[in-house]
Amino acid sequence: MQESKSPLQLRSGDRVRLNQLGKERSPKIAVETGVIVGRTRGSGFYVLLDGNATPSLFHHTYIDRDEDVPSPSVTSS
Q: What is the DSSP letter of 51?
C-alpha cells in the first residue's frame, strides 16, 4: 500500500518528477522532471519541466519529490 502524501510536503523550488499515475494520465509529456514554480489555491502545482519555457499544471497526486537530486542548499565545489 502506498503512503498518502500531503501537498504541503512539496514547496516552490523542489525538484519533482512525474510518478506512475502522472505518466499514465499525461502520456504526451516527454520530459518527466522539473521544478515547482508555484501553487494553485487547491491541490495543484505549477511545474516548469526541464527544457520548457512555460510551466505546466499538475495535481499533487501526479508528482513526487525527486530524491535523486541533491537539495538546493547543498552546493558542490
A: T
pTM above 0.85, yes or no: no
Counting Cβ atoms within 10 Å, is residue 19 exposed (0-12), middle (13-18) or buried (19+)?
middle
Nearest-angstrom CA–CA distance, 42 and 28: 24
Give the type of residue at 75: T
CA distance 14 to 53: 17
Which residue segments constitute the domains of the chain, with CATH numbers given? 9-65 (2.30.30.30)
Q: How far apart are CA 60 and CA 58, in angstroms?
A: 6
For the cut 90, the answer to whether the pLDDT of residue 67 exceeds it is: no
pLDDT at 68: 78
Q: Over pLDDT 70: what percentage of the chain?
A: 78
